């Protein structure tokens, strides 16, 4: 079952109260000035006050029945959007409230404040970046922005930036500059703070490429940068540079995420609460880690997907891609067992899209429905023929899984053929 929206969900369909009218008291201690939401329902963290932030103040913002707010066996995921594609800050503000309502679906660290992960995937807030002068007078449709988690070692961070310069130049792109993403580190838990990378954004411009052509150039640039980082790690033995992560590099979408609980994401990333942050959709995710240790890069959404569930065919999926890595001489492996199942699926999904396919088509290939002996396809043999064909090219990515996706043009959701996700 796949649900596809051309652009978005109508604003009148939202049942969420306005965040301005329902904001609770601010966090105490180190986060005294951080506007956030008070928890009235069941919490993921019930530990005492640690590090100046009381865990009970940053959980589920609205009450609910125990059968709903007590269900913690899988990630929380959802999206909001404007059906007419209108860009406005209200989408972002409401998404943060909706994300806060899913705190009970996530896990947190032993410090009772750090989270398994929370994040949002939105359209690029060009209004904000242009107003602050980061586009240097260029039109936003000629620019892209990278959301990067750089090493905290200044020398290694500079080395990564030289990779950006070199690979951008190869494809006719100009690096316009770097921006330190505004953060309020005092709202983070101790575990998240220790692991915090140097979060910066890189702005790039191309004189002629636009739309899909620009997206492909940015994708190729990012993959080449990742390959340079991979080689530098092997040659220099610098493990920290190998932890560099590019959360997004696109002219259409951007990702803000980290090892936070739901209601801490907004206060931490000041951009998200800036009234100039305009978007026409927002995918939000609260992570419950089941098969990997929480890390900043593993928080979701990924670059194009937000995933609730597990991929239980992962070994076969990764092995198929390893074979393709070898046959196509890829410098940057597309998949790895060192990454999460969600990260691997996202990488393959994105690669197919950049090859010219539509998102709905790609998911039908990767996460096929139960089409055999399906009466509704008796008169549509071309559908079963298509799924049989793709089944011979790669292992199906079977869950249980719920997936929400967007490439900045299409937005939709689907269940895998097990259909067991709530």
- How many strand units? 12
Strand arrangement across the biggest beta sheet: 1-12-11-10
User: What is the global morphology?
Assistant: globular
Mean pLDDT: 83
Question: First CA to last CA: what distance?
Answer: 13 Å
Q: Ranges with pLDDT <50 over ≥5 residues?
A: 6-62
Strand content: 15-25%
Whole-angstrom Rg: 21 Å
Q: Which H/E pattern describes the elements?
A: EHEHEHEHEHEHHEEHEEHHHHEE
Biggest beta sheet summary? 4 strands, antiparallel
Helix content: 25-40%
Q: Class by helix and strand content?
A: alpha+beta
In DSSP terms, counting alpha (H) and pi (I) runs of 4 or more, how many helices? Answer: 12
Report what the structure shows:
This protein is an alpha+beta fold and 422 residues long. It has twelve helices and twelve strands. It has helices spanning 66-69, 89-100, 126-131, 154-170, 190-195, 211-236, 239-242, 265-268, 314-327, 341-354, 359-366, 381-391; strands at residues 2-5, 76-81, 118-123, 143-150, 174-180, 198-205, 245-250, 253-258, 281-286, 305-309, 401-406, 411-415. A four-stranded antiparallel β-sheet has the order 1-12-11-10, covered by helices on one side. A hairpin with a 4-residue loop joins strand 11 (401-406) and strand 12 (411-415). Helix 4 (154-170) packs across helix 6 (211-236). It is globular.
């Amino acid at each position: 079952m796949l649900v596809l929206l051309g652009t978005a969900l109508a604003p009148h369909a939202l049942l969420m109260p306005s965040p301005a009218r329902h904001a609770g008291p601010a966090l105490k201690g180190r986060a005294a000035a951080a506007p956030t939401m008070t928890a009235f329902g069941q919490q993921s963290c019930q530990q005492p006050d640690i590090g100046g932030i009381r865990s009970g103040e940053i959980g589920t913002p609205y009450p609910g029945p125990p059968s709903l707010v007590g269900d913690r066996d899988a990630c929380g995921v959802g999206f909001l959007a404007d059906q007419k594609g209108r860009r406005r800050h209200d989408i972002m503000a409401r998404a943060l409230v909706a994300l806060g309502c899913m705190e009970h679906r996530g896990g947190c660290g032993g410090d009772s404040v750090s989270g398994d992960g929370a994040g949002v995937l939105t359209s690029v807030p060009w209004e904000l970046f242009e107003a602050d002068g980061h586009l240097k007078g260029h039109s936003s449709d000629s620019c892209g922005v990278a959301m990067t988690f750089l090493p905290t070692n200044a020398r290694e961070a500079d080395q990564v930036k030289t990779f950006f310069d070199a690979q951008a130049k190869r494809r006719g792109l100009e690096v316009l500059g770097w921006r330190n993403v505004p953060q309020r580190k005092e709202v983070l838990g101790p575990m998240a703070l220790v692991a915090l990378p140097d979060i910066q954004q890189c702005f790039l411009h191309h004189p002629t490429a636009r739309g899909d052509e620009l997206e492909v150039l940015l994708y190729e640039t990012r993959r080449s940068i990742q390959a340079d980082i991979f080689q530098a790690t092997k040659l220099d033995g610098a493990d920290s540079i190998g932890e560099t992560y590019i959360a997004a590099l696109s002219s259409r979408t951007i990702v803000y995420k980290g090892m936070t609980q739901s209601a801490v994401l907004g206060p931490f990333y000041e951009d998200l609460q800036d009234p100039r942050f305009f978007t026409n959709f927002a995918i939000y995710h609260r992570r419950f880690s089941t098969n990997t240790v929480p890390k900043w890069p593993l928080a979701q959404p990924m670059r194009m997907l937000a995933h609730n569930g597990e991929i239980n065919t992962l070994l076969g999926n990764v092995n198929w891609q390893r074979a393709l890595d070898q046959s196509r001489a890829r410098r940057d492996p597309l998949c790895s067992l060192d990454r999460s199942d969600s990260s691997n699926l996202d990488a393959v999904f994105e690669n197919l899209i950049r090859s010219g396919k539509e998102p709905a088509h790609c998911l039908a290939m990767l996460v096929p429905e139960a089409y055999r002996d399906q009466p509704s396809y008796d008169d549509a043999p071309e559908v079963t023929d298509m799924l049989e064909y793709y089944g011979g090219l790669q292992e199906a990515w079977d869950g249980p899984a719920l997936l929400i996706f967007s490439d900045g043009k299409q937005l939709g959701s689907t269940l895998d053929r097990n259909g067991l996700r709530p």
